[in-house]
Amino acid sequence: MTEACPDCKALKFNGETKGMCCATGKIKLPQLGEPPEPLKTLLARYTAESKHFLSNIKKYNSCFQMTSFGAEIVTAQFMPTFKVKGQIYHKAGSLLQFPDGQYKFLQMYFIGDELNARCGISTGMKRSIVSQL
Predict the structure, then answer these.
(1) This model's pTM is above 0.70
(2) Distance between CA 78 and CA 62 in Å, rounded?
(3) Known PANTHER family for this protein (predicted)?
């Protein structure tokens, strides 16, 4: 991301089309403020915990999803662009507890130990980071 949009100053991925971010100046958004703590510290990349968080940011983001994106992905060129074959769907899961006691998606918000369920979504998650978010 070395090029910036001349209109909104957004950093662009290599090969990203001109005007994709702000429709060539037609869309104007307010300036983002500083993120609140503890997110600001986790994004700073100063500590080992911060570096771990940024290296695993997709996993931490998945901790808080209420549904899961589903599709047959055909190609993925770079991070924000991919092609899908067939239909896109969301896996929301049941609001009732599964027989094995595993909580997923919306169940985490209504049933059981939410923190343990979130930490169990992916390997390598640090409980101390999830509890801050």
Answers:
(1) no
(2) 19
(3) ATP-DEPENDENT DNA HELICASE, DNA BINDING PROTEIN-LIKE
